[in-house]
Description:
Layout: E1 2-11, H1 12-19, H2 24-31, H3 34-40, H4 44-61, E2 73-77, E3 83-87, E4 101-109, E5 112-121, H5 129-134
Antiparallel strand pairs: 1-5, 2-3, 4-5
Helix pairs in contact: 3-4
Amino acid sequence: MSVRIGVDACDLTLLARQLQSPTAARFLSNTFTEGELQYCQGRADRLGVRWAAKEAVAKAVGSGFRGLSPQQIEIRREPGGRPWVHATTGLPWPDDAHLWEWSVSLGHETDLAIAAAIAVLPTQSSRTPLEERNSR
Length: 136
């Protein structure tokens, strides 16, 4: 078993300004799913924490947004409120990360949103990550 972690933060004051800009509609449509937009209702705190979560997931994948689009990552909520990661488009993620087991934690306070993403990868090799890196 291998574990990867990604963390990101979002400045909510800056995001609130961006949401008032002429490019806001393009940013929202390129970044969030319809379900996320409906849930967030334009609120910077909800959008910001989801943006931070998408960034944290991309960091845990290890590719960032190269080969992975923010639209492919949807942050959903269970009825009790627990957030979870959903792969939306049916397109594979780098390293088949859409198949990994994901856990996310979200938080926001006044002008800062933060998210952590943890991925548990299936065991594919008996080699350690250091051995894998050294063999390349």
